[in-house]
Amino acid sequence: MTNNTFINLKSVRLFLDRELSICLLIVGIFFCLASIFLIFTFNTLGIILGIILLVPSLFLTKLSFNLINKPALTLTEDCIYNFNKKIKLHYSDIYEVSVQETQKGKELFFKIKNIEKYSDKDVISFRLLNIDIDENELVTILNKKITNSNLNLIELFNNYEEEFKTNIVSFEIRIFNILLSLFILIYIGYSISINELVLASRNNVIYLKDIAMYIVALSAVLFIVRLLITVIQHYDQEGNLKYYEKYKIPLTSVSLILFVIGAFYIKYF
User: Fold this and answer.
1) Distance (Å, rounded) from C-alpha 125 to C-alpha 219?
2) Residue 87: exposed, middle, or buried by beta-carbon count in 10 A (0-12, 13-18, 19+)?
3) Contact 37/49 with Cβ under 8 angstroms?
4) DSSP type of residue 121
5) Which mean pLDDT values do the consecutive 10-residue runs of the chain (269 residues) have?
6) Contact 98, 109 (CB under 8 A)
7) What's the CA gap between 190 and 197, in Å, rounded?
8) What is the pTM of this model?
9) How far apart (Å, rounded) are the C-alpha atoms in residues 185 and 217?
10) Interatomic CA distance for residues 73 and 6, integer angstroms
11) Count of CB atoms situated within 10 Å of the CB of 137
12) d(CA 223, CA 187)
């Protein structure tokens, strides 16, 4: 049972380290929100820092989500497709597959028959960084396939099939999380712009400024991230539910702790 191999009726998809990609996605969202709050300070330095931080944060968010959903290698019944190099190799054009250790790490090497169809080299290589499958077994399977095109590729990979757990989140939950995120974002942003955050309960009203307000703002950022990854996981179709669930409790816990610290900062500090 592997973490980065998924099989459907048409192809085998081998992924890079998706847990790291999801972690980077969360980091990207966090800094996107933090940069927005910096812009809301309406302070010249804050606006400049916010804009500078927002651009790489958006890039990191987009890149990491692409990595989650794009397999490193896709193996179909007639060809091998590499997403990074955008190369499609037909089994009929390959006469040997091997794995070798290089300066870049382990790479999958394909010796090509019809060189002119691909490049001026008779060997094409793909990196195997963090693909969760034994490299030698992968090579064995591919060599079997290129020597006998009638072999069923899906059956060869049966031992590597992972149970697919759906990421479906109901429409109501997605809408609720999005609206709540927007409300928190706007309210905290407005509070930062006037340097005063009001927390009200039935019996008390707390006015937070400066450090206390920013601690609660940081708590809000983490909580919004927690809300948004629930929405994002619905659109991730590669069965990564366990990775999203792994981050929800820590995000909620740290957010709650920071909120309590910020709310009682004035009283005790």
Assistant:
1) 46
2) middle
3) no
4) S
5) 42 64 89 91 86 92 78 78 74 84 77 71 64 73 84 69 61 93 93 88 82 92 93 73 83 93 75
6) yes
7) 9
8) 0.68
9) 9
10) 11
11) 13
12) 14
